[in-house]
Write a structure and sequence with these properties.
This protein is of the alpha+beta class. It has three domains: 10-40, no CATH class; 45-125, no CATH class; 137-324, Carbamoyltransferase, C-terminal domain (DHBP synthase). Helix content is 34%, strand content 16%. The chain is built from ten helices and 15 strands. The chain has helices spanning 25-33, 46-74, 91-100, 114-125, 151-159, 192-199, 214-220, 242-245, 269-282, 303-311, and strands at residues 14-16, 22-24, 81-83, 103-105, 137-141, 164-167, 170-172, 181-185, 209-213, 238-239, 257-258, 261-263, 286-291, 317-320, 323-324. It has a seven-stranded mixed beta sheet with strand order 12-9-13-8-6-14-15, with helices on both faces. The model has no long low-confidence stretch (mean pLDDT 88).
């Protein structure tokens, strides 16, 4: 393999906070252990926004350039490209690479994916050459709502602009909420982005991700193909066809893109049935899907943890344990 060394960014011995104070790397490690934020950039300030935008542009341009050169020097363009690592949590980078290559992002692309990589390597050295990752619902099982809670009733609540928490079956493996520990809302109201974040004490500037019925993915997403397996996992971006932009204001970014989860019946029956019921009621085969957690906390795992969120009025209703609360 021929690779290219690139200049390391930043300083070797210390970092500088927004308060202009120098912190040694040892101090940074200790502060991180105690979850102390050295400085947090305020993206409402143009200077900080420009720093973030410039870094994002630099990362995007150089990641794409390095991978193009790597492929061109070593492989044919049609070879499958599988990527992992924190850089590939950047969905804009992934969206561009997906247009150029037969591309797949390991869904748990961060450190949590090391276990998956170790298992795959162990299988490979023992003679297995093909592994199917058929589901990411591999975590704690809180029980299913299928054939218990009524999807049509849930769809009516969503149409009334209610914010609904969903606990369904096994928890997701990886950083994305995929309908097992999700907060759902109707997608046409741009203000939903603000109102949900305010209730969850989040500070975010990007719209939420949409969950889209597979039958309508090609109609809504420009360039989508059934071959794009990563579109199931919220790791790619697509431009939205113009006729759908106004209908999906709560999930479309300013550049006209979305970070979708495309689902069919086989992925998650109950979750699918909610989106389908909402479609039958409204003509929109899409819902807002964001992770079921408050700011600074992990996703909820159990029914009890979800009830606590409901009691604190962070959501309007909860679907869990076969009931609508």
């Amino acid at each position: 393999m021929k690779t290219e060394g690139n200049q390391k960014l930043g300083l070797d011995d210390y970092v500088i906070g927004l308060d202009k104070k120098k912190y040694s790397l040892k101090e940074v490690r200790e502060l991180r252990k105690n979850k102390v934020i050295i400085s947090e950039y305020d993206l409402n300030k143009n200077k900080n926004l420009n720093i973030a935008a410039n870094f994002a542009s630099f990362l995007q341009h150089n990641t794409n350039k390095i991978i193009e050169r790597l492929i061109n020097k070593n492989f044919d363009n049609d070879i499958p490209l599988v990527v992992s690592g924190g850089t590939f949590a950047n969905v804009l980078v992934n969206g561009i690479l997906n247009k150029q290559f037969d591309f797949f992002v390991c869904p748990p692309m961060g450190d949590e994916g090391l276990s998956l990589g170790a298992a795959a390597w162990g299988a490979y050295i023992n003679g297995f050459t093909h592994l199917d990752l058929n589901t990411l619902y591999l975590g704690y099982n809180a029980g299913t709502n299928f054939n218990k809670a009524n999807p049509n009733q849930i769809a009516k609540l969503l149409k009334k602009s209610k914010i609904i928490g969903l606990i369904e079956g096994n928890m997701e493996f990886g950083p994305r909420a995929l309908g097992a520990r999700s907060i759902l809302a109707e997608p046409s109201d741009y203000g939903k982005n603000y109102s949900i974040n305010k209730r969850l004490n989040r500070v975010e500037y990007m719209p939420f991700a949409p969950v889209i019925l597979k039958e309508f993915a090609n109609e809504i997403l420009e360039g989508w193909s059934e071959k794009h397996k990563s579109s199931k996992h919220m790791t790619l971006t697509y431009k939205v066809h113009p006729k759908w932009v106004k209908k999906l204001k709560g999930v479309v970014h300013k550049d006209g893109t979305v970070r979708p989860q495309v689902i069919d019946k086989t992925d998650n029956k109950f979750y699918y049935s909610i989106v389908y019921a909402f479609f039958k009621l409204t003509g929109i085969p899409v819902l807002i899907n964001t992770s079921f957690n408050r700011h600074g906390e992990p996703m909820v795992r159990t029914h009890k943890e979800a009830i606590d969120v409901l009691k604190n009025k962070k959501i309007d209703h909860l679907i869990s344990n076969g009931k609508i609360y």
